[in-house]
Known about the structure:
Rossmann fold
Amino acid sequence: LDGESVYRLMKDEGVTIMQGVPTVWMMLFAYLDEHPEIDARELGLEWAGIGGSALSQAMLARIESDLGAEGGQGWG
């Protein structure tokens, strides 16, 4: 599992809602940082859920700005 595989899966499957621990989101953002030609807002993600540890304001800001999605914290 790496940022590229997460991105490709989101793109290929048309993911609109995704849950992940912060590490998964950080891998995705690292991949996007390495590929500035990608406009991740075009993925069509609508909701990003974070679990496993606290959602930082910085991560929420990236979800909103880079992915164009809403984000939220989930506890199980």
